[in-house]
Amino acid sequence: MILTVTPNPSLDRTYEVPSLDRGEVIRATGERMDPGGKGVNVSRAVAAAGQRTVAVLPLGGAPGALVADLLDQQGIEVAPVPVAGATRSNIALAESDGVLTKINAPGPELSGAERELLLETVRRQSRDASWIACCGSLPRGLAPSWYAELVARAHAAGARIALDTSGPALLAALRERPDVVKPNAEELAGAVGRPLATVGDAVKAAEELREMGARAVLASLGADGQLLVSDAGAWFGSARVAAVRSNVGAGDSSLAGFLIAGGNGPEALASAVAHGAAAVQLPGSVMPTPGDLDPAAVTVTAEVPADRVLKEPVS
Ligand SMILES: O=P(O)(O)OC[C@@]1(O)O[C@H](CO)[C@@H](O)[C@@H]1O
């Protein structure tokens, strides 16, 4: 079973708009609502692959009830932590030329009792988890060291941890040696405090994260592909993609693909790349089913193209 922990879930609202004109009333041409938050999306992708998953998340207010309903409709097993504050709503504005602007709310503030209940729920649900995926930003009330504490507790209980977060929460958790961390290019650059211009720069940054404590680094480099750097070596994976529809949740789909395939080595990287490529070709944060995957379009190599200049460099 793959357990996911999303301390700051969201009701994801996507509005399709012709274009963004600041200061104007913009009429949306379409809208959709998805249960969101990075760990929630990982659970949706794991469930879409037919594997068992449980999603732990605080839920509160009317948006929280809607998230619970939407997850129920999708057949996702949830271990909810009831909280007094309302679950946030995150807005995505999708322009017809493919540009997507996202507004992520801070989320409710968790009280001391709610924080404890969240940790206790994770502990209770961890028993038959092969992996615990801890994902996304932290809501107010959780210190940047919260993920570090979670990783330490989960390791003590014998579980493996995948961590997808950024900034101080990522840096603080590294010292507890998470089994894999999954930064995107921006998060990787932020963690090492340097720009990334080439694939080789990303490999160096990933190695630095390993020196800081990560056992393995699965880095998503957007249109450029993905990197896996672990004690067994480094691999680079990429896929042919016909047309990008939405990259919301593509990183979460990749992480799910990686964990479903064992969470280690080039086969798991190939599965991560296949899941990420399938997700960007689906609308909103729709997660791919096995029928959406195209493994033949994926290439994984141990000959990392270090000199390749990134299409989307991070300055
Ligand atoms: O604010 P965070 O926690 O960093 O990210 C939240 C979020 O942007 O991540 C998911 C996509 O990865 C969305 O479902 C959700 O809205």
Summed up:
This protein has 315 residues and is an alpha/beta fold. This is 1-phosphofructokinase.
Q: How would you describe the overall organization of this protein?
A:
It is a single chain. This protein is of the alpha/beta class and 315 residues long. The protein has 2 domains: 1-178, UDP-N-acetylmuramoyl-L-alanine:D-glutamate ligase, CATH 3.40.1190.20; 184-315, Ribokinase (UDP-N-acetylmuramoyl-L-alanine:D-glutamate ligase, 3-Layer(aba) Sandwich), CATH 3.40.1190. It has 9 helices and 16 strands. The protein has helices spanning 38-48, 61-73, 112-125, 146-156, 167-174, 185-192, 199-211, 250-260, 265-280; strands spanning 2-5, 10-17, 30-36, 53-59, 77-82, 88-95, 100-103, 131-135, 160-164, 180-181, 196-198, 217-220, 226-230, 233-239, 298-301, 309-314. The strands form 4 sheets. The protein has a 6-stranded parallel sheet, sandwiched between helices. α1 (38-48) crosses α8, α4 runs parallel beside α5 and α8 (250-260) runs antiparallel to α9 (265-280). The model has no long low-confidence stretch (mean pLDDT 96). Bound molecules: 1-O-phosphono-beta-D-fructofuranose. 1-O-phosphono-beta-D-fructofuranose (F1X) binds at residues 8, 10, 12, 36-38, 41, 90, 104, 136-137, 248-249, 251-252, 285. Residues 16-287 form the Carbohydrate kinase PfkB domain. This is 1-phosphofructokinase. It comes from Streptomyces qaidamensis.
